[in-house]
Structure formats: C-alpha cells, structure tokens
Amino acid sequence: MRRKITLKDIARELEVSISTVSKALKNSAEIGRDTKEKVQAFAKLYNYKPNNIAVSLKNKHTKNIGVIIPDIVHYFFTTVFRGIEKYANSHGYNVIICVSDESFDKEVINMEMLANGSIDGFIMALSGETQLKNDFSHLREVTDQGIPLVLFDRVTDEIQCDKVILNDTEITHQAITKMIKSGKRRIGLLTTENFFNVSTDREAGYRKALTDNGISVDENLILTLPFNEEIDAIGPFIDNNDIDAIFAVNEIFAIHAMGIAQGKGIKVPEEISFIGFTDGWLSRYASPGLTSIAQHGDQMGEIAAKMLIDRVEEELKSEIEIPFRTEIVKASIVERESTIN
Amino acid sequence: MRRKITLKDIARELEVSISTVSKALKNSAEIGRDTKEKVQAFAKLYNYKPNNIAVSLKNKHTKNIGVIIPDIVHYFFTTVFRGIEKYANSHGYNVIICVSDESFDKEVINMEMLANGSIDGFIMALSGETQLKNDFSHLREVTDQGIPLVLFDRVTDEIQCDKVILNDTEITHQAITKMIKSGKRRIGLLTTENFFNVSTDREAGYRKALTDNGISVDENLILTLPFNEEIDAIGPFIDNNDIDAIFAVNEIFAIHAMGIAQGKGIKVPEEISFIGFTDGWLSRYASPGLTSIAQHGDQMGEIAAKMLIDRVEEELKSEIEIPFRTEIVKASIVERESTIN
DNA sequence: TATTAACACGAAACCGTTTTCGTAGTTTTT
DNA sequence: AAAAACTACGAAAACGGTTTCGTGTTAATA
Asked: Is residue A14 one of the residues assigned to a domain?
C-alpha cells in the first residue's frame, strides 16, 4: 500500500527544498532548467498529485460547489443537477450534493455543514417547508458571510442573489391558450399548495390565459392537491365539472388524471386533453404520449453553475461587486397525443 | 460582510493562546472552568465553527465520500444515491457526486479529481465503457493507495473490495418461473450487450428458469438491444416469434415493448404479459401497471455507505485489516396488471 | 518546611501546500 | 577591478486547526 507522495518526499529524495519542488512543478522561471526537469521527471515517475485539501486551505477556495435540492428521485431536479455537474466538472469544480427532502431543518443543517469552508458557493432550490415557513435566515447567514448563492426554480424575493427561473407564467399562458384554441372551454387546473412560488406563477398564467380569451375563471375548476400523494379527489373533480381539458403543475398529477379519465372510458384527447409540467420519462412513455412543458433543466443547471463560478472567480481577482442577476429560461411545449393539435 | 471568525481571532480577543481556545471548545479537562465558559460563550456569540478544510488537513480525513455513477437521470441510481446520502449525512459525512456518463475517460478523470485528498472513500457503479474495455487500472490505483472502495450493482471480480449487488440471477429466475406458471411458454428476453455483468446474470436466470421448467431456450427469443435507444427491432421481434410474454432488463425496454404490443391491439396481459427490471415511476404509472423487479436502491445505497464508513472509521482507530465483503440485496417482484396473477 | 502532585495554560510542531523575501554565486556593466 | 544585476535556490511564514509536551502556580503530602 503505497502512500501518497508529497512535496516533502520529493524534496528529501532530490535533496532540494520544498519551495524549489513546488516552483519547479509549476514551471516557475525562478528555477533552473536542470532542476526543473529533474523534479518534474521524478514527480511524474511517482505520480505526484498535489493534495487538494492543502491547496484549498492555502488558497482559501476549494473548487467545490454545494448543491441543495429538495428531492433527487425527481426528473426535473436530476436534469438540473446534470447541467450543474457538467458545467462544474468541465471547469475543474466538484459538486457536493445534499438533499433537503423538502424539510426546513435538513436544509439548514446541510447548509451549515457545507458553509464552514467545504465549498465556494451554493446552488439551491428551496424546500417546500422553507417556502411555507417563509424563513430564509439561513440563506441570509450565508450570503452575509460573502458566500455566493444561486437560487433556481424555487426562489424567493426575500434574498438578494443570483437566480435562474423559468417563465412559468408565460408558458402556462401559452399552454392554456393552446387548449382554448383547440376548442376547450372547461379547463381544469391541478395544482399544489400555493406557497410554492412556481405554483402561484403557473396559476397566474392559467387565470390570465382564460380571461385574455374571454373565459371567466371558474374556481371549481382549480383543484389544489395536498403535499402527499393524496389524489383520490381527481375522479370526482373530473366528473362533477364537465371538464374537457386538464393542465397539471407536474407530471405525476397529469399522468394520474389521464389514467383516471381513461379508466372512465373518456377519450383522450377528443373529450379531454392533458398537459403537464415536466417533460420527463412519464410524459414520453405514457400512452397516449403526454403533451408537456419542457423545463430544460440541463440548461438551467448550466446557467446556474456558470453564474456561480463566474462570481466565485471574479471575487478572487477583483474587488468590484458584480450586480445580482436573474436569468429566465424559456420553457417549451412538447406536443404529443394527449392534446389536439 | 462579516468574515468567518477563527481560533486566532478568539484567542486575540480573549487574550489567551490558540491552544487554550481549541481545548476549551472541545471541553478538554486541561482547561479551567472559567476560561472554558468565557471561551465557549464568546464562540457561541460570534457563531464560531471550525473550518472543515483545516480540520481535514490536520486529521487526514475529510468526512466526504465520493460517489461515481454512470447516469443521474435514472431511477435506480437516484434511489441508490438517496440511500447513500441519507446514511452518510446522518453520520456526519457529505457526498461528492460525479457522473461518468457511461464513459471510461470521465470515470478516470473523476476518480483522479477526487483521489487527491478530497474524499475518504469511493462508492461507485462502473460505467458501460469501463465494463466493455475491462480495464480497471484506475480502480486498482485507488485501492493500492489504501482508499476504501465499495462497488455496487455494476461490479467486477477483477477488483478486491467491498461490493453490494442484487440477486439478479435468482430474481430473474423467479420472475420467469412466475410467467411460466401462469401458462406462458414463448417468453422473450429484452436485454443489452452482455458486457454488463447484470445483463449476463439476468440472462443466466432466464435460461435456467426455462430449462428448469422443461422449456428449451429458443435463441430467437433473446433480443439484444444496442446501447442507444434503437428500439425499432421490438415490433418485428414480437410479430415473428409468437411471443406470449416479455421480460426486459430495464423499465424503458419493458414500457416500450408494452406500448408497441398495445399499439398492435394485442391484449395485455392475457395475450402477452410483461415484467421489467426497476420498479420506478414508469412501472407505477403505466397503464396497465407494469409488474416489475424492485431493486431496493435505497437499501443498496445505505448498505454501501455503511460498508464504506465502517471501513474508513475502522482504519482510523486500528491497524487490523477488515476482510472484504460482498452483500447481496434481495430484489422483489412488484405485481401489477401487466402479468396474470 | 521541603517535596511532590495536580492544575491551568502556552509554545511549538504538524498536516501539505503556496509565496514572499533574502542571499549566495555568477554574470554583466562601467 | 569594483559595482550592479541576474540567476537559482532556500528559509520561513501563512492557511486554520489539533495535539504533545513543557512549565509556572498552587495545593497536598511527608
């Protein structure tokens, strides 16, 4: 079991000083040709790699970024994560990921674990509980310390930082308009408790699309489903409201509702059509295929990672403050067979 | 922008030495009551938290574990990850995750990035390319350095380390036997190139189940689908072979095949039944629901994390070598409507 | 009262780097 | 030939902790 070789080992072996070795390996002009070659050859031979931890301690930055998301077994978040990881890795950064599990406490604990030197900055989407409690002191704690933070998707106006969001309202407006254009009038909305900023935004798009098209909003057509998977309400909801289309704020609700409708023998999309948020595996492989809103998670992740890393590296070299930005990713509608084209 | 406070700051402010502060905060018996209380109060007031990096450098372990998986937008891997993260977090460890994207090179690069002090050990599933090339030198590199490694699911006999695997052969045997018991005789197998150990094992279970039940294996009933999503072959495969059941080594293949069969108007499960590996969202929300093999990813992840952390912490306190173990997780069959009960 | 033990704390080494600064020895300049 | 300027390298501080060991004070023992 070969132990890792250090600068000190090389220095001792080659009878030069540690500083000489360090400089030689960095190709410093201070060091003579022969010494450089000797050191570099030796280092290569013994496969020397600098110890990341020591470098981090010295340089005061770790090349790690912390990601905190509410859930990992979730299509959208995994695609965002993939985008983050891709961008980060190609820029020499590693990603430490923590799952808050929609819990405020876990979110706080995870942030505290990472905020003590482990990472150069955070990328996160707020947990459900955090949005519900409306308590962001842990975020402020972190930004006050000068640790860069990028929020994505589940964001808040309470915190001044970089953000990446989707044009939720707009894309919902488009989707609902599309349904109306295809002749639908009694369009149901399946949504979650509106402490989620995204639910609120999507509902706003829904309402505006209806009124813009001269249809008054029937509150009975808006079904708020609880946090857990309590979805028995969908059946009666469809039956009692003469519904001819359903827009759902997530894939699961949409697929579920479509399954229930099909079970009742209602024809999709002629009698009832469906659109759901998140263009994931379920939408793709449902039968009929589910028309859905592609959130371009990979793109959101890459943008978030770029914003964060740009800020981290800017802060290293200059003292000028970069203003906070909010980038908006444009969603798109992926048409499949659950809607009338 | 308050900077983080250090031991040195506290020492200066309280006019004691750094070592006294350090000991006081650790409640060392060496330090007097009054001094301890003074230091602890001050530390609490200014929210002192030790710098992780400095502690890591000193202690030579980081409380980080590295996870390398081939894909993140993938139900099974995310559940394993969730298990790892849960166990690790509750034991004070953070998880750095890298995605190899089924690429040998990325796997190597990721391992090298992390193997230089960033982590105390690895948990990984081999990339497709690695299994194809059969080149595990990067793993050996790491184990030779004494860095603990746990392989899960996609493993290899070439490397001596802890492993967590599924009883692939056995559960496939059970599933196929179940199909036979329900009257099926022409059972198709949808599989991938057999450089994946899991594909090989599952195929072995398939073959054995048939012969054990007195059915000879018809090689035409085994369809090997390529790495990408080239699945046009499924339609003709069903048509030409008088197939009455299909077992697929993953969820996507199964769902796809079921969709194609339904498109042809073949009745599921009466005329053709389906079982797929991975009990994910697709299986749950397909219509009819897909009978599937639950791999208990959370459990695999927790076991892997426990094996790794146990080994890391054992190595800290004693020099005795723990023998390598292979834990086998028992899959189970989740029955839904795509099979005859 | 002299000796020993217990107590409370500080100095310093150490983890593995990076980086500033000082200085022999050599070369160039005048 | 003396002064100035390079060249090539080493010593040492620093990053922020942990830990060993030494020591001055006080309390207990003989």
From this structure: yes
